[in-house]
Amino acid sequence: xxxxxxxxxxxxxGALLRPHLLSGxxxxxxxxxxxxxxxxxxxxxxxxxDGFVAVRVPxxxxxxxxxxxxxxxxDNPPPGALFAxxxxxxxxxxxxxxxxxxxxxxxxxxxxxxxxxPQDSTWGEIVRFVLVDxxxxxxxSALLRATAEYARNRRNPMRVLIAYHDRxxxxxxxxxxxxxxxxxxxxxxxxxxxxxxNRKSADYAATPKRRWRLDL
Length: 216
Fold this sequence. Notes:
There is one protein chain. The chain is of the alpha+beta class. The protein has one domain (45-187, 206-215): Aminopeptidase (3-Layer(aba) Sandwich), CATH 3.40.630. The chain has four helices and nine strands. It has helices at 27-44, 61-68, 139-153, 173-177, and strands at residues 45-47, 52-57, 83-93, 96-99, 105-110, 123-131, 160-166, 181-186, 209-215. Strands 1, 2, 3, 4, 5, 6, 7, 8 and 9 form a nine-stranded mixed β-sheet that branches. The longest helix is centred in the first third of the chain and has 18 residues, at 27-44. It is globular, with a radius of gyration of 19 Å.
């Protein structure tokens, strides 16, 4: 049975109710509260493979600092995002499976960078995607599928999820395995807005990219 959990779009960290919060409530109220927490956990914690889960995390300074240290070839983390999912080891919590709090990968989704695409949050773009070394084979496509599932069921559901891959670095097979389809080819831009001189990515040379699209 598929739960409609769009009303419980809250981080997993905030969904773990402490026992004293349930004191003074009737049994029915306690059960309803527990059911709401389980639904919220299902919305913000998705099973991946080999004992790992994708957990919705706040895109705050801590997350940006982790991303800056992750070794991604684009050194500067995006200043903002619509949501982020982190790869964590699964552990058993009070109301079910949760993450252990240690990030081993991250998928960040924001509004499309191309301004001619919809900017009303019905379209989302994967603006950063990082996995640490040593994770099981197939983790990348599993995280992409979890990201699509979250985007489909969030409070304001997305209709389209897009991503770009640098054709000089990899083939983009992870997107094909996750159900994305080829949507466009983007030529390297040699003119236009550039990063500030004192930012690390100012020296990054534009490369041709392929756009992938998943209709949700």
